[in-house]
Amino acid sequence: MNIHTQNLKLSPQLIKAAKEWIADCTWRDITEDDIELLSDEEIERGIQRHYSGGIEAFKQACSE
Q: Which branch of life, at top level (predicted)?
C-alpha cells in the first residue's frame, strides 16, 4: 500500500502527542533526541504504520 503523506496531516498539537506516544513505546532503537529530529512526515508515517488503526484512529484517540 502506498501512503501519500499529503493526506495524512496532523496538527502541531497532534504531532506533539504523536512524539509523546512514540517516546512511551518500548522501542529501544530510538531515543527522545532521535524523536525530536524526526520530520512531521516521518512522524505521520510512523503513526500510520505502527498505531493500531493508523492516523484516523490516532486522531480519534487524541480527541477523546
A: Bacteria
**Confidence (pTM):** 0.75
Question: Which residue positions in the chain have pLDDT lower than 70?
Answer: 1-8
Task: Answer yes or no: is 6 within a domain.
Answer: no
- Rounded distance, CA 4 to CA 35, Å? 21
For 40, the grid coordinates are: 512531521
Domain of residue 44, residue span = 11-21+31-63
CA distance 13 to 2: 26
Please give the single-letter amino acid code of residue 55.
I
Number of domains in the chain: 1
